[in-house]
Each structure stands twice: as C-alpha cells, then as structure tokens.
Write a structure and sequence with these properties.
Layout (H helix, E strand, L loop, with lengths): L2 H7 L1 H10 L4 H38 L12 H7 L5 H16 L7 H7 L2 H5 L11 H4 L9 H19 L6 H18 L1 H10 L2 H5 L4
Length: 212
C-alpha cells in the first residue's frame, strides 16, 4: 500500500479493509470508499429519522404543560420532566442547556433549541428512570400498547449505530439491515407515510448490493 494511503487512514484502520479484501490493495481502497458511501447514506436516513422522532416526542412533551406554561423547554416544566438534580436527569437538563446556548442563549425560540439537541437525548427519553415523568406524555402520541422497554432498546441501539456511522466505522451488512428495520418500525410511529418516504429516499440497500 502506498505510504500516503497509510498516512491518511493509519495502519490500524487500513488493516481491517486489507483483510476483508484478501490483501488486495486496490480492492481494499474500493472497500473503504464503499464503506464511506454506505455510512453517508445511513447518515442521510438518520437525519430524516431524527427530525421525525424529535417532532413526535416534542408533541408528546408539550402535553406535560400546565396552565400558563408555553413550552416544555422552559425552566419549570423542564424540571418537572427531569426532577432529580443528579444522574441522568441532570444530564438531560444539561443537554437542553447546551442546545439553548448553541441556539443563541436565553430567548432562543424553541424550534431553534430543538434543532440543536443531540440524538442521544431523544433516545434516552424512553429510559426506565423517566417512566413516571416523561413516558406518560410520550405514550399519548405513540401507537396504543407501545412497549416502552422495547422502544428504548431499539432507540438505544440506533443511537449506538449512529455514533459508529458518524465516526466512519466499518459497516456489517447484516447490522445495517437490522438498523433499517428498526428505523422503519419506529418511523411508522410518526406516520406510515413517513416510513414509506424514508424507505423511498434511502439508497443504503442499493449501495449494500454494490459491495466490491
């Protein structure tokens, strides 16, 4: 392998592709580019998926408001949803505070703050610790009999996968297929039409079939 490729990718990262390519240098580079394209296509799907889930959960959390309150991101309803001053609740409030700062600080509109909240925040809203504070509101915008534990396990797995994809890790086709199925299942909670659109716009399966 040419030295500039090793300097670019590092021996450790490159080794995985060389092994997969049977130590064929040219094929190893083609595999790396294919992997990058699959990850980019997955990030496209995750972007659509995240916006849909974010807006669905936002609608649910708005149902937590009491008389005179405007948005769940405001201080009082936020503390009611995440009441404990330590642990996961503190991290959730910190995530919102950081998003608020990125959106422009105090006075930033809710939509701008929502757009700055990381995917991990939404994935954690179905955690057991929030069963009595957040889940009763999310439950109202989800299909009847949605299993919180199952949904949380799927969202947590999607969050881990998204992080791996964002860091350009090697893809495993079987895992990618499982990711697409998880996304589609949860996308149907937003609407069947959204799930169909997500599928129709995705190029992931086409790229999987083009593996060098």
């Amino acid at each position: 392998m040419e030295s500039w490729v090793v300097e670019w990718l590092s021996e450790e990262r490159l080794r995985r592709y060389l092994i997969a390519a049977g130590h064929d240098n040219n094929r190893a580079l083609r595999l790396y580019e294919w992997n990058a394209n699959v990850n980019a296509a997955l990030l496209h799907d995750f972007a659509h998926f995240e916006v849909g889930v974010r807006n669905l959960y936002d609608r649910g959390l708005q149902l937590s408001l009491q008389h005179g309150e405007d948005h769940w991101l405001d201080a009082i309803p936020l503390r009611r949803l995440f009441p404990r001053p330590q642990g996961g609740d503190k991290r959730s409030r910190d995530d919102v505070d950081k998003a608020r700062q990125r959106a422009g600080g105090h006075g930033a509109p809710p939509g701008a703050i929502l757009a700055e909240i990381m995917f991990g925040f939404w994935a954690n809203l179905t955690a057991h610790r929030l069963h009595s504070t957040v889940w009763p509101h999310l439950e109202q915008v989800l299909p009847s009999q949605t299993d919180r534990t199952q949904l949380h396990d799927s969202m947590a797995q999607l969050n881990r996968t998204r992080n791996r994809v964002a860091h350009h890790e090697p893809v495993v086709p079987a895992n990618v297929e499982a990711t697409l199925r998880r996304m589609r299942r949860i996308a149907r909670y937003v609407s069947p039409e959204f799930a169909d659109h997500l599928d129709s716009m995705s190029t992931v399966r086409t790229l999987l079939a083009q593996r060098p």
